[in-house]
Write a structure and sequence with these properties.
The protein is an alpha+beta fold and 87 residues long. The protein has one domain. 17% of the residues lie in helices and 48% in strands. The chain has one helix and five strands. It has a five-stranded antiparallel beta sheet. A hairpin with a 4-residue loop joins β2 and β3. The longest helix is centred in the last third of the chain and has 15 residues. The two termini are 14 Å apart.
Length: 87
């Protein structure tokens, strides 16, 4: 047995700015141990996440969340999703 096990962490998302005109969304996402700022240009499907520390843990799950709920997100809104990772 490899000793690896699945864990789940709740990610908290706050939408700071949204522009349908420019096709962009900006916000913050945090977990128990990390906090990032992100920018998503949904017309182009481009996501950027800063800082780089821990970015690999959140990049794909955040991208899936944004794509799934894009039309339901509003500036000033607070949202949550679950991150599943192998540790």
């Amino acid at each position: 047995m490899s000793g690896k096990h699945s864990t789940e962490t709740t990610a908290h998302v706050r939408i700071i700015r949204m522009s349908w005109q420019f096709g962009s969304l900006e916000g913050e996402v945090r977990t128990n141990h990390y906090q990032w700022r992100f920018s998503w240009h949904f017309r182009e499907g481009k996501l950027s996440v800063e800082p780089s520390l821990g970015r690999a843990l959140i990049f794909e799950p955040l991208g899936r969340f944004l794509e799934r709920y894009d039309y339901h997100l509003e500036a000033g809104g607070d949202y949550e999703f679950t991150v599943r990772a192998k540790l």
